[in-house]
Design a protein that fits this description.
It comes from Pogona vitticeps. By secondary structure, the chain is an alpha+beta fold. The protein is built from 19 helices and 28 strands. The strands form 7 sheets. Strands 6-7-5-8-9-10 form a 6-stranded mixed beta sheet, sandwiched between helices. The longest helix is centred in the N-terminal third of the chain and has 29 residues, at 114-142. It starts with a helix and ends with a strand. It binds guanosine-5'-diphosphate. Guanosine-5'-diphosphate binds at residues 267, 269-275, 306-307, 310, 406-407, 409-410, 445-447.
């Protein structure tokens, strides 16, 4: 208890919030992880060579034009390099919206002053637009390729064609009542609503463009000039010409008033995770009787009759894999008030890395423990995964937990056994940083389907248990706060080639929102691309927001540059990529003290990256956070410390105080989790 009070009394002034304490198994006498380091290393994938070929650019003219543009000027080697560098910078700002020829001229005229060149291109673009307006359609045609190109681009960028959205996988018949901008043939623009909004409404939408925190993208600077041509009143600032949406309201509509919740299922091998969730899905009607019968027959034939329900999830996993649009093992189901994305970590061998990826994207977790005698103990004590998983999810930011005390049928639904498990686990979970009120214990039988979607009627249970069934508990989790108002951030969990000209990435949107046609910056490699399509639960959508697991189709970038762990962000408010940062860490139960130069595996969001502890800056007082020792020689279990970490390759992260989700990480060594930390300073 004393230790617990210490944790609570910790001064989290700048880095931690009161309800966001870290795992603290510091006095445990056992190593918390059973896995090996090799098992754990799943760092950024190597791309098959087929992926290395440069993807066909969206605009075929570019390469030819590029060499022509440059070679038509007599430049020295140094000047050519300067020009290339300026063009690269300009492309980052302007995207693909301005032809290379125009940019080259501007750079040369400005004598390689990139800022001046940018200004002149932007001024030129808006001049062009003004002239076009003055001279009407005929004049517009005469203005040549630049203008035509811009119009085409802008039209395709700003007028999303699809307006359908999905509610739990079903297509909505009608679109949103949202205004959008149409650029008409004659170059005049009118703000129209898809359902006939009044002029007043249209104004309101422009107002929203000013208020909405969504930053204006570089390419939209050009769009804004376009808009100023078309609207009689000049646009004050480079507002979004794109369809404007009130994301919060649209989210409400899309989800039918339901909250989105990402749920990860964790627990020791064979605790019954797959059976429990498979049976739950079956009872919810996600698997028809015939399919279930097939699983029963097949699993019987394979001599694994008891695995029939577990096959429900495996089958779903396979389907997802074949569909190549979402992460493996994601299933969706609904409760009364929530839409749940269930993340299942299939396969035992890679369980911990998978679990970390899942947990990094989860809002809440179900911890499944086996109530059978000896089995709970095996999972909970030395070498078991129950403790490690508990600590990991908490360190990754999960604060609410449902513990399914499973296989209760094996212990005749005994209240004493249930209580014994609750008290053992409760103590540990408290130490790990879970608030008592945020942990619920549900007696279940995954195999028998008892107490899963309806309260059990069995007298063995009802005589002592009056609490919720598992589904009710899932429904009563508090909805997480979505950072819709913050700049866009998505951490890549998978990358693959699609059939078209671009490629796809999947991941959870951690902050902000995104629309088809947006430009995004990838960090690393610090390059921009365009969002050609967004899919949510395999359905195409126009936009998606924080909390959504999406698949994005991207163009204008080479797939080879993107790895798992890259962060896509808004180019105006980019995330920083660095190899050196400072952090406050809490050291778990370690046997070997940490010294300067200590090698670790840094687990951050979906990435695991080799890193070194470059400096030990200070040891902090556990309760007050004050520095108790500067430049310590080593760090031992249970200590709080300020350290500097160096990664081998750049990773994109944020300060914990700005973006919690992108500012926390874990350190592992030799197959054990040795510390959890938060980023306090990004160096370089
Ligand atoms: P996982 O490794 O945690 O996903 O566990 P599985 O779902 O694969 O289950 C492991 C074994 O435990 C299988 O043989 C299941 O049939 C069995 N099992 C799962 N839940 C229960 C339960 O509630 N009662 C009993 N008696 N067996 C169960």
């Amino acid at each position: 208890m004393a230790r617990h009070r210490n944790v609570r009394g910790y001064n989290y002034d700048e880095d931690f919030e009161e309800d966001d304490l870290y795992g603290h198994s510091v006095e445990d006498d056992y190593c918390i992880s059973p896995s090996t380091a090799a098992q754990f290393i799943y760092s950024r994938r190597d791309k098959p060579s087929a992926f290395t070929e440069t993807l066909e650019e969206e605009y075929g003219y570019e390469d030819k034009e590029h060499s022509n543009c440059i070679s038509s000027h007599e430049l020295t080697g140094v000047e050519k390099a300067q020009l290339e560098s300026c063009l690269k910078h300009m492309r980052e700002v302007l995207g693909e919206s301005v032809p290379e020829k125009v940019m080259v001229e501007a750079v040369l005229n400005s004598k390689f002053n990139v800022q001046q060149a940018l200004d002149s291109v932007l001024a030129q673009t808006s001049n062009q637009n003004m002239k076009t307006k003055d001279t009407g359609i005929a004049g517009k045609a005469a203005k040549g390729k630049v203008r035509d190109f811009q119009t085409t681009r802008i039209e395709s960028d700003i007028v999303p064609k699809v307006t359908k959205m999905t509610v739990s996988g079903k297509k909505q018949a009608t679109g949103f009542e949202v205004p959008c901008v149409t650029v008409e043939e004659n170059g005049h623009s009118t703000l129209i609503s898809q359902k006939g909004l009044s002029a007043g409404d249209a104004d309101a939408s422009l107002g929203a463009a000013e208020i909405l925190p969504k930053p204006t993208l570089p390419s939209q600077t050009v769009q804004a000039s376009e808009e100023s041509t078309l609207a009689p009143t000049p646009v004050k600032r480079s507002g979004k010409a794109k369809q404007q949406i009130d994301v919060k309201a649209e989210l409400e509509k899309r989800q039918g008033g339901k909250h989105l919740l990402n749920l990860v299922v964790i627990g020791h091998v064979d605790a019954g995770k797959s059976t429990l969730m498979g049976h739950l899905l079956y009872l919810l009607g996600h698997v028809n009787k015939r399919t279930m019968h097939k699983y029963e027959q097949e699993s019987k034939k394979a001599g694994k009759a008891s695995f029939a329900y577990a096959w429900v999830l495996d089958e779903t996993g396979e389907e997802r894999e074949r569909g190549v649009t979402m992460d493996v093992g994601m299933t969706k189901f609904e409760t009364k008030t929530k839409i749940i994305t269930l993340m299942d970590a299939p396969g035992h061998k890679d369980f911990i890395p998978n679990m970390i990826t899942g947990a990094a994207q989860a809002d809440v977790a179900i911890l499944v423990v086996d109530a059978s005698r000896g089995e709970f103990e095996a999972g909970f004590e030395t070498g078991g995964q129950t403790r490690e998983h508990g600590l990991l999810v908490r360190s990754l930011g999960v604060t609410q937990l449902a513990v399914a005390v499973n296989k209760m049928d094996q212990v005749s639904w005994q209240q004493e056994r249930f209580q014994e498990i609750v008290s053992k686990l409760g103590q540990f979970l408290k130490q790990a940083g879970f608030k008592e009120s945020d942990v619920a214990y549900i007696p279940t039988s995954g195999l028998g389907g008892e107490n899963l979607v309806t309260r059990s009627q069995s007298s063995e249970l009802t005589k002592w248990y009056e609490g919720k069934c598992l589904l009710e508990q899932i429904d009563s989790f508090k909805p997480p706060q979505r950072s819709v108002d913050k700049p866009f951030r998505l951490c890549v969990s998978d990358v693959f080639k699609d059939q078209g000209s671009g490629f796809c990435v999947t991941g959870k949107i951690e902050a902000g929102y995104i629309q088809v046609g947006d430009r995004l910056l990838a960090m690393p490699p610090n390059e921009t691309c365009t969002v050609k399509g967004i899919a949510l639960h395999d359905e195409p959508v126009d936009w998606a927001a924080a909390g959504d697991h999406v698949s994005l189709t991207l163009t204008g970038m080479d797939i080879i540059k993107i790895n798992v762990g890259c962060v896509f962000c808004c180019p105006k408010e980019p995330i920083k990529a660095c190899t050196r940062f400072r952090a406050r860490i809490l050291i778990f139960n370690i046997e070997v003290p940490i010294t300067k130069g200590f090698p670790v595996l840094l687990h951050f969001q979906t990435v695991s990256e080799p890193a070194t502890i470059r400096r030990l800056l200070s040891i902090l007082h556990k309760s007050t956070g004050e520095v108790t020792k500067k430049k310590p020689k080593c760090l031992t279990k249970g200590q709080n410390a300020l350290i500097e970490l160096q990664t081998q390759r750049p990773i994109a992260l944020e300060l914990y105080k700005d973006f919690k989700e992108l500012g926390r990480f874990m350190l592992r060594y030799g197959g054990s989790t040795i510390a959890a930390g938060v980023v306090t300073e990004i160096k370089e």
